[in-house]
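Morning run. Coffee first, then this:
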Amino acid sequence: MKNTEIYHEAFNINSKLVKLSQDIEEKCRDVFERIKNISAYNQSKVIRAMQEYGVSESHFVGSTGYGYNDRGREVLEKVYAAAFGAEDALVRHQITCGTHALALCLYGILRPGDELLSITGKPYDTLDEVIGIRGSSGTGSLKDYGVTYRQVDLLENGEFDFEKIEESINDRTKLVFLQRSRGYSWRSPVTVERIAHAVKFVKRIKPDVAVMVDNCYGEFVEDREPADAGTDIMAGSLIKNPGGGIALSGGYIAGRKDLVELISYRMTVPGLGREVGATLGQNRTMFEGFFLAPHIVSESLKGAVFASALMESLGYDTCPAYNELRSDIIQAIRFGNPDAVIAFCQGIQKGSPVDSFVTPVPSEMPGYDSQVIMAAGAFVQGSSIELSADAPIRPPYIAYLQGGLVYEHVKLGVLCAVQELENRGLLVLND
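And here it is:
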């Protein structure tokens, strides 16, 4: 059976849609090649870092109890720091998610009376209650501890509002925050080049301010990371890009050595810091996941490019456009109505290798202020480097597609999603 036939025979995908997908792949060929070249460079960086610190089988052995003198853990953190262009790093499975990693940075660096300034607008929804923008008082938010918060929104064209940034930085500004990815917003991600420009601008105004980047979804998308661009601290999740689909849990923090040390005291307690934390047999998956990450990210990116080009050809607004330079793995697709965004996400689920029989529905989710539909048939629960699609059920009804361990799965998932739109009468495929 030809590979084009199996889409119809096994997944009931319209032959017109299959033919369109072939045309789209040809259209994306040059973009795919660009992604391949970046992946090759980043793969070399990771291998060089592993060789520099002599990674061996002995480093895969896990520790128990307090986790003192865990050589695998220590070497893994050196590898991360080297590959990311940072002085130091924390890489732990005890960091439960990206939000946890980001919160550790905020609590580790900020003190009562300090001010946090976000220069990419409001951070991702799950940080609202950490900062104290939303939620009850007394829960231990930064606001509860006397840390104030200000934000400067990006300009309509997605660029930094440097005039307002300069006006907003004051004597109390301790930490300037940038979110690289789009979150639940309609904007392009912030490229590393733009991050570098912002860092220089901020440091010129206040040299002692620390600049932090939420690097979730951005690792290995470009050939540089924010730490290479002068960022003081950055953080992300191991069930996103750097875990390579292999890491079972965890998060990382990378940047200036003195800041990493402070953050380690919030990760555990002052006096112990990074010296404790048993790895419980997780070292191998974290090493192997990091090794695989550049290639896995490239597969995810190819899938996002395909999705963007296909949905654009069907008349939908996409961000970024298929041939636009990317700085994260997320593909936003604007549907304009709730039925379409729900159908698309449910179609993604039908194309999954795991839980394909499950029908995701909008529901309340911790950390979000509206119902969210989340489609994911993943081997690691909640993994965003595996193919998933989620959407807050609120205007303008945008679905956010991300991940994919292999390009072929992303392609199939997107075709299943489009087919679901047609099956429900929400899309007409022209000859």
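The mean pLDDT is 95. Good start to the day.
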